[in-house]
Amino acid sequence: ALAPLKAKRTISLGEDLTPLKAVTSYNNFYEFGLDKSDPSERAGTLRPSPWTVKVGGLVHKPLTLDVDQWIGKLSLEERLYRMRCVEGWSMAIPWIGFPLAGLLKAVEPLGSAKYVRFTTLNDPKQMPGLRLPALDWPYREGLRLDEAMHPLTILAVGLYGRRLPNQNGAPLRLVVPWKYGFKSAKSIVAIDLVERQPLTSWNQSQPSEYGFYSNVNPDVDHPRWSQSTERRIGEFRKRPTLPFNGYGEQVASLYRGMDLAKYF
Amino acid sequence: MARLNAPPVWLKPAAHLLAALPGLWLLAGWAELLWLDPASLRLSADPVAHTHNALGLQALRLLIATLAVTPLFRLSRWTPIMSLRRPLGLWAFAYAALHLAFYLAMELDFSLSALWREALKKPFIFFGLAAFLSLLPLAATSTRRAIKALGGRRWQALHRLVYVAGIAASIHFILRVKGFQPEPYLYAALLILLLAARLLPNRKRPNRAPQPTA
Fold first, then answer.
1. Using an 8 Å Cβ cutoff, are A67 and A147 in contact?
2. TM segments (chain B) (predicted)?
């Protein structure tokens, strides 16, 4: 059983939550296989404890985090966020975590740091899907520094009041609620501050389909399917997709003056 | 006395059952979801997407099975297998039609003009629709009467559209998946193999006449 976590709810959502069973059985986590059901069936090989995360790159004070110890010292928040997958489905999930900004401030980024790169574990023994070339491994994602510092951006360590199940990215994952789900890298082992926009796995595999920004945008279709609507897991009819997944008021200013059809 | 080369009585029912099973499984899943347990995960947490994918995959599998009949006959010379070509082809069409109907209903609100727009804008949809439209005239002319009305040669020429359907369906599947995934390529490879087998010279029945010995 997953250890319970104490957290104070800081962000609510006026929407029904997606049932835990759905959140933990319907996952895209290609390190464990290509079917949605593969992660819940096969992620038992992952050893999320002990686990260390290296935070470094262009910083004054690089550090290596022991996730278990660190969770004990933090005051955790519960945040209810919408999660919109690039494939056209969505969920509402009660994450438990903490703002990434705090961690980034602790390592003191150098002036030259402009982006943050997140790297997922790359161990085929724990993640059998790495033996297939579905993507260029290890899984890498990235954010602009101001996106990473935004108060909505969190590192999650739990959901539904417990530590993260393996299939949801244990023990530590990113959650960026205004971007398509794949931006929220799972089972992170390294966070690096870098000067140039980092290469990210999906952007590298099909740049015409998965942009670096990948902000949820109903007006910019994926080349193969429409992004104007989505199906909330548990519902049969589609609902309209909101710009920035409904977080426009908080984040739209990050992209002022940018052509979002070009920087999709 | 049994008709010479008549298929064994179990052959067609077995083919019908195998073809129908995935559909029956989906029906059972929906019955459970709608009447017994709305939280059921038998059809995954997204039953709409699961159903849509399962119908499409079964259509492709049956199309490939249909295309396998002739090469298997040439290889085995077992005439009864030829009796499966029509039922398998019709089942492939039935699943393809359900797959398309489901897409129209769940994604496009039954709008044919929206389907047309999507097909022109997205190659992924274009190839899927092309596959279905290639199968449509074949299903419509699948009766003995249609063969007579068209004449054997013209009927056969028309039914070569099944190759177009197979190729278009394979491309549709390849375009569907994210990242590099082997599954659609395995189907495409099987299809290419079955099409290439038709280019080999057709082995004639072994000549039963006694061979000259000297």
1. no
2. 55-76, 88-104, 124-140, 161-179, 185-201
Q: Which two tokens stand for residue B11?
A: 């052959």
Chain B residues whose CB is inside 8 A of the A37 CB are: 44
- The arithmetic mean of pLDDT across residues A241-260, rounded, is 97
B182 contacts in chain A (CB < 8 Å): 132
- Which is it for strands A115-120 and A63-66: parallel, antiparallel or unpaired? unpaired
Nearest by CB to residue A25, choosing from B45, B107, B175, is: B45
A262 within domain boundaries: no
Q: Angle formed by the axes of helices B112-121 and B123-140, to 10°?
A: 120
User: Closest Cα partner for B179 from A122, A209, A40?
Assistant: A209
Q: Is residue A110 part of a domain?
A: yes
DSSP state, B7? P
Q: Of B47, B48, B181, which is closest to A34 when you measure between CB atoms?
A: B181
Q: How far is A70 from chain B (nearest CA, A)?
A: 33
State how far the Cα of B136 lies from the Cα of B154, in Å rounded to an integer. Answer: 16
Number of domains chain A contains: 1
* Residue appearing with tokens 């996952």: A27
**CA-nearest residue of chain A to B30?**
A236
Yes or no, beta carbons of A231 and B175 under 8 Å apart: no
Shortest CB distance from A233 goes to which of B45, B177, B179?
B45
Q: Counting beta carbons within 10 angstroms of the beta carbon of residue B13, is it exposed (0 to 12), middle (13 to 18) or buried (19 or more)?
A: exposed
Kindly list the residues from chain A whose CB atom is less than 8 angstroms away from the CB atom of residue B39: 19, 21
Within-domain flag for A1: no
Q: Over the stretch B1-53, which tens digit does the pLDDT of each residue have?
A: 455 567 889 999 999 999 999 999 999 999 999 999 999 999 999 999 999 99
CATH number of the domain within which A234 lies:
3.90.420.10
Cβ–Cβ under 8 Å, residues A26 and A18:
no
Residue B212's pLDDT band (boundaries 50, 70, 90)? low
CA A64 to chain centre: 20
The answer to whether B180 contacts A205, with C-beta atoms less than 8 Å apart, is yes
Who among A18, A30, A238 is closest to B179 (CB)? A30
pLDDT at B1: 47
Nearest CA of chain B to the CA of A219: how many Å? 15
Q: With an 8 Å Cβ cutoff, are B45 and A234 in contact?
A: yes
Query: Is residue A263, in this structure, part of any structural domain at all?
Result: no
Q: Can you give the pLDDT at residue A96?
A: 98
